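Standup notes, protein team

Yesterday: finished cleaning the Didymodactylos carnosus set.
Today: DDE-1 domain-containing protein structure.
Blockers: none.

Input for DDE-1 domain-containing protein:
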Amino acid sequence: QTGVEKELHSNRTISFVGEKRTFAAVQSKNATTHTYTLQPTISLDGRLLETIYLCLQEQGGKMGEQVKRHLFQPENVVITCSTSGKLTTSLVKYWRDNCFLPLVGAKCLLLSDSYPGQNREELYQPENCRGKKVTRLQIPQNTTDELQPLDCYFNRQIKNFLKACYHRVALDELDIHLHERNNIIRLVSLMHNQLSADVFTPMIKYAWFSSGLIREDPSPFVSVNQLSFPLKTQQIFLRIMVL
């Protein structure tokens, strides 16, 4: 799982030499300090599973009836919420039942980190997993940056995609508020759809390789920035801005 700011922004901007104060703009200052949680699931053969788990931050840990009626609900995003925007044990159960179990076979090896909400053994017992045999291996504490495939590489690609979209809205001064609930869901759905493309299979395999869990390096491959937001496109945009 990875936390994402409701409004992703850069801490860098162009400034004049000797300038004592440099100002930057964001759409919502509050959104830059609040987060939601994404929990993607990748397989060893380089696939991003068909649904991604999204935990929004909602006051009181629940959505009102009016919010639910107008909630955008794409097929590839399973949506839940909590007061903090982070996962609890009950929300991990919801992920297990709605994201994980429907997409795996009768036997499955699950590799996950030591996050307290997901390390209880009873979560993965056959009686709680629709009779499926789920064998869970836990990544030791304080080693996720070295041994967790998502943390080693893939989550960075997710954020690169999201950041590029936020930056485009800011640079073009588009009247789109990406920090709003339904726009967060739309953007997550779009990101998941794009990263599910076969062209990113070697990139996902590299996440496993970079964590030392497979021996064969799938390089060369294209990253999100190289394929979805190539430098040539950015250079053309900058040239237009200068003119």
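Follow-up from PR in the comments: Residues 149-171 form the longest helix (23 residues).
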